[in-house]
Amino acid sequence: MADDVFKALADPTRRRILDELTDRNGQTLFEICGRLVTNHGLGLSRQAVSQHLAVLETAGLVVTRREGRYKFHDLHTEPLEQIVTRWLGPKTPQTPQTPQTPESTP
Amino acid sequence: MADDVFKALADPTRRRILDELTDRNGQTLFEICGRLVTNHGLGLSRQAVSQHLAVLETAGLVVTRREGRYKFHDLHTEPLEQIVTRWLGPKTPQTPQTPQTPESTP
DNA sequence: TTGATAGGCAAGTCGCTACTTGCCTATTGT
DNA sequence: ACAATAGGCAAGTAGCGACTTGCCTATCAA
Fold this sequence. Notes:
The structure is a homodimer. By secondary structure, chain A is mainly alpha-helical. The first copy, chain A, is 48% helix and 11% strand. Chain A has one domain (2-86): Arc Repressor Mutant, subunit A. Chain A contains 5 helices and 2 strands; from the N terminus they run ααααββα. In chain A, helix 3 packs across helix 4 (46-58). The interface between A and B is large, with 50 and 49 residues.
């Protein structure tokens, strides 16, 4: 579950796509292609962007709705809120502990 | 900057390492190797873990301190708090907008 | 109906990255 | 001094992932 989210966020292009969807929700594939070109200088093929969107969708970060021949892509930020809290314990900042002499396990 | 953090979090093994450091801070390389084996059944070579720790360190997620022949690894969660807020705008949840007929840019 | 637009499926290429192996340095204990 | 422990450097391998190319389907407008 969270694995898919981290995998989806690993790619810079996919993060840009999330940026563009944050700017305006409900875009089509061609709209996103155009925005990546004009706003980021990324000249990707339509298929490349489509595959990125598929990864984002299986991660639950993007949900889609079809309307006629258009397919609109909406951002879904809920998975983002859960993944990072895993290491941000309820206690506030981390304080390094006093070192202990370890026993090795080769 | 944030790119390194996302790249570091992309690998499952590196996430496990962060888990182990969350459990107990200030571990050595051999300790982490042992924990990955006993707690997760991951039988990696020492070098593999060392390389993972290097990635985590350049991402700023782990800081190290040398003491004699030991090198202790401490978790540093600060970079985690910043990366996700990028898409979690100050406004609360996302509401899909009304669709608009787009002009294409092939 | 025909052409244009929006999108999907499948196979193939290529580069990056996780991992291993082999050897080397430094610190500690007896 | 010597052996054992903790760690580092470098090169090589294998598999995954990003991207392309080619072709196919569906919806809408004229």
